[in-house]
Design brief:
mainly alpha, MetI-like fold
Length: 220
């Protein structure tokens, strides 16, 4: 088993989950409270990775961040390196592709919070910021946790988006799913079987935990 790929996959999943917690929570909060009629457009954009093939998503992301794109040229001037075929590249792809797995559960959890509790806090003179962290967040924490678990689990098994934007560079962009593909290509079925079994066990644990939380009334 490629333990470097294991470490890289865990690093990618952890960083993606952390970034999406910071980015997805404000977006989900806005979606849960806004009355804007165009909200469905934002929801559609957020949900696009659910129906868009990873290769298509990865291709356009590769073009948008390549050396000939404005974003790619700006990033190269600032950092001295390109976005594609680096850990930063697969992290960007992972964050964008996993956005719905974070935002949708977050939004569902926030929408279930009783508005009377929030309004009562406001009437007592508590600021909106403190109300969110003292009232809204604790009451929706279960659904937020589910979203983070689903995001982390989905990152572990990513293949198409990582391969398109990151290629297959050992120690840099070679994750577990790509390692399985390489082992099969090399006819090393024993190593592929070990890695695949690890992912199956992990997926089973995540699904069991998610179903358990669902049975306890946590929104999914």
């Amino acid at each position: 088993m490629d333990w470097t790929a294991v470490w890289l996959t865990l690093k990618l999943a952890t960083c993606t989950t952390a970034i999406l917690f910071v980015v997805g929570l404000p977006l989900a909060c806005w979606l849960a409270t806004t009355r804007w009629r165009g909200r469905f457009l934002v929801e559609s954009v957020v949900a696009m990775p659910l129906v868009l093939p990873p290769t298509v998503f990865g291709f356009y992301l590769l073009v948008a961040t390549g050396s000939k794109s404005p974003l790619g040229q700006w990033y190269e001037q600032v950092t001295g390196s390109l976005i594609p075929f680096t850990f930063s590249g697969i992290l960007l792809g992972s964050v964008l592709y996993n956005l719905p797995f974070t935002v949708r559960p977050f939004t569902a959890a926030l929408e279930q919070v009783n508005r009377k509790f929030i309004e009562t806090s406001w009437s007592l003179g508590v600021s909106r910021w403190r109300t969110f962290w003292r009232v809204t967040f604790p009451l929706s924490w279960s659904g937020i946790l589910v979203g983070m678990v689903l995001t982390f689990a989905h990152c572990i098994g990513e293949f198409g988006i990582v391969l398109m934007i990151g290629g297959n560079i050992p120690g840099v962009t070679r994750t577990l799913s790509i390692a399985i593909y390489d082992d099969v290509q090399a006819l090393d079925y024993q190593s592929a079987s070990q890695t695949a079994l690890l992912l199956v066990i992990f997926s089973l644990i995540v699904l069991t935990a998610t179903q358990y939380l669902s049975k306890r009334g946590w929104p999914i």
